[in-house]
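Record minuted for completeness.

…
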Amino acid sequence: MALDCYHLVDVRHQYLLFQIDEQELVEIEEILIEFKRLTGIYIDPYGTTRIHQEFIELLLSKINKSLDMVRDKNVSRVTLLDKLTGVKEGLFIVGD
């Protein structure tokens, strides 16, 4: 199961930005739970989710904070952080 991520303004979903794979989702599960608690936004692995840019910034800060708290940098979190850092207009996420 992978999540396909597009720019929020790409309404036809023609240009895939990146994918979030199942391993990455498992690694950030607690971050996504906290994100939902703070924003009410649930990233649905089987449906679609819209995340506006201000919430991308919040998600980035939560991932950064989680990396600061651990000595062993989690590769999946670092990879996801790199992917999300390039997002400037929000995301439209399509699950399987």
